[in-house]
UniProtKB/TrEMBL annotation:
InterPro entries: 5peptide_repeat, Pentapeptide-BTB/POZ_domain. It comes from the Bacteria. This is Oxetanocin A resistance protein.
Amino acid sequence: MSAEVTLHDNIHHDLRADCQHCFGLCCVALPYAKSADFAFDKDGGTPCRNLQSNYQCSIHKDLREKGFRGCSAYECFGAGQKVSQITYEGKDWRNNPETANEMFDVFPIMQQLHEMLWYLYEALSIDIAKPIHPELRTSFEKIERLTRLSKERLLTLQVDEHRAEVNEWLLKTSELVRAQARNPKLPKKISRGSVLIGAKLKGLDLRGANLRGALLIAADLRNADLRMTDFIGADVRDAGLSGADLTGSIFLTQAQVNAANGDSNTKLPPSLQTPAHWK
């Protein structure tokens, strides 16, 4: 990457999972427990039984049907291929078992860095945030440089400190975007970190809402107006988004969309794709 961040398709691609160039790291490094999202228990560092010798998932096309909704919603933001091809220079953990545990420890650190890059990339694409684009760009470049560190240095990173610095500029971006909504109808209960599990919000005008970290599990948001809404860190598992308008919403990820329920009438930001399970 050049010293100056240019918003082009290559950067966008680098911040999306490319399983063809990854050593199945999310299928090995991460633990999960048997639940509605996973069909069985798996310890961190143990390969999933569905992981094939070519590092591809044998049930990838049927994850939800096979009881792996959590996998279908997961997004590494391109960290998998970065660790596999750049940090470890294409040396996989099966043929180099002495590096396996270290690689599995590096992966979640890289995932956090790439997630920050994703949010910063989006903030840099927002016109209303142009007054702070220089600071956003500097932050992007700093985090991107961290992703190029050696595996030894990555393992010593104080990720929380870098996340706090990035969050300062993401918050400013959010304030600039949401201020455009000027929505006097916004319910007071709709705020950062709100517990809205199963909430009945169908058809409401929620433009400009701050839903950072909100618990919206199984919330009914059908036909809601969610333009210019901040979704960073919101839990939207099984939330009903059929007919909802999310155009212009910010910091909404593909993983969040994949975990929710919508339909062909749901309007998404152009950077996101309609999940296959939406009817």
